[in-house]
Amino acid sequence: MDTLLHFANLVLHIDKFLGDFIHVYGAWVYAVLFLIVFSETGLVILPFLPGDSLLFIGGAFCATGQLHLGALIVLLLIAAISGNTLNYLIGRAIGPRVFNSHIPVLERFLDRRALQKTHDFYERHGGKTIVLARFIPVVRTFAPFVAGASAMTFRRFQFFNFIGALLWVLLLVLLGYFFGNIPFIRQYLNVIVLVGIGAAIVPILFGALWKMVRKHGANAGSR
């Protein structure tokens, strides 16, 4: 419980954490930023790291001269692209093995036809999914893994991986650079981050709920 509280405090006060870290360790903050973004996008077990707020706050520190804007953008872009690539490769390596494990317990819950449908979906709409997922916490961690597990074409994945990473890093870092040090935004940054996360997740939840309702209605009508 103490660990969860400490992590929640870190997420909600990431600006203070980075400020203190820069003051004590200086340029080592670049390595920390790289590792956090790489881990959030590259390791499916770490979807709750503060990627969006981290980019925004990083841009704000660039505006004060504590970080170099160009170096930060390039570093975070490499972290985001390589993280997604690792996640894709992990999904590509273990996804099909899980579906073809012939383990009775897994066979009951996994459907190979579902995997084929997911592959078809990613070949048709995977580009939009990879790009849009960059801006949705948690989803951006799982999207490249699912793309790999469903055997989305690697070249196609990498093209949209680059586009999504470029838009995500540039937009959030530059927003932080130009607006991150405005007193109102600085004061209510935690609230803004939470509202932003909610605005990204709520439409997805409503969309999923609406599909469930429609599917239930269609099944009831066919009886």
From TrEMBL:
Belongs to the DedA family. It is found in: Cell membrane. The keyword Transmembrane helix applies. This is Protein DedA. Residues 49-177 form the VTT domain. Pfam families: VTT_dom. One of its GO terms (cellular component) is plasma membrane. Its main location: membrane. InterPro entries: DedA-like, VTT_dom. The chain crosses the membrane at residues 21-49, 69-90, 159-179, 191-213. It comes from Paraburkholderia ribeironis. It is a multi-pass membrane protein. Keywords: Cell membrane, Membrane, Transmembrane, Transmembrane helix.
